[in-house]
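User: Structure tokens for this complex, please. No commentary.
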Amino acid sequence: MPDGRLSFHIMMNLRNIAIVAHVDHGKTTLVDAMLWQSGTFRENQDVGVRVLDSMDLEREKGITIMAKNTAIIYGDVKINIVDTPGHADFGGEVERTLRMVDGIMLLVDAAEGPLPQTRFVLSKALELGLPPIVVINKIDRQDARASEVLNEVYDLFIDLDATEEQIEFPVIYSVAREGKCTRSPDGELTNLQPLFEMIIEHIPPPSGDPDHPLQILVTNVEPDDYLGPLAIGRVVAGTVRNRQAVTLCRRDGTQTSATVTELFVYKGLGRIAVSSVDPGEIVALAGMSGIGLGESIAGGETPKPLPTLNVDEPTLSMEFSVNDSPFSGKDGQYVTSRHLRERLLKEARHNLAMRVEQTESPDRFMVYGRGELQMAILIEQMRRE
Ligand code: GDP
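Assistant:
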């Protein structure tokens, strides 16, 4: 800009929101209903009945492991909905996930009330200054006690040192299973329009300077069979274009050049290829091989990396070693120390709350994590593989 001022664009037609909910309080059911009612799905599109859960293990354990993105088109507004891990073991993921959004939706069961597992995610969200909206779900339950539950939510917010504005959150009451909601506890249930309006009204649109050199914070890396690893994150500043030359800025200070080979934004449960994306959006980029979680992608002649994300320190360690029992090698495909090493390193790259170190022995590895559940899930995933 000639006068030295930065241009500052507010993306009025975009909202980025994370859902915070205890397992079984109805997150998947609600997002499902939002997808159907918003008309995000065109006719004849083949979609499963319940759409948010995709990992087998997740379905079985009833726990959300991966942060995933869903985008709902409501009128001329796009709402990116980011799933948060439901358990404090996944501290690294929680941090990253929340960096993608401008507000949260706390979903609470009208009978059970807020439970301890959501406390950690909520505290991180409040710490980051994110404005919340509260949805009290399952008000159709015989044992629903919505007003008491609302008081418990207020107590929780006070306990977590929420700001005054954060405590003045708007509330909606829902029966996600029927795709219905109401703004007052004894009001008449309608479709989800009041919820959509509440999100648009209370969650601020993202903003950023499209003319600033590009900065993307990488919050997730997802494998793709055809495109290689996809870097997923929020465009913090600047505009990103397909085929653009960029710089990968790593945690250790090193920088390498790369080219965006495919550029996607989210729509419904999938991605769509686009040619350019303005700041505020959540994007997936191909061609970014070697970038890690919490690192950044920058553009321009003197690339300016974003601060790398801090991670909670591990609280637990466990030794993983190659099977040396008499039955070793009789069963399974990935059985050598090289396989084990590759698998663990992959996990560490994807999961900021986990660290892997080689020991003196080439067959043994130390894995540092944040909790027993996190380890149990990794072990079970590896067993299945
Ligand atoms: P998630 O673990 O938070 O994703 O929860 P789900 O969406 O899988 O829902 C857990 C269970 O609660 C399922 O059996 C749903 O059918 C049920 N459920 C969801 N919403 C409601 C509701 O509004 N009322 C009642 N009674 N049950 C609901």
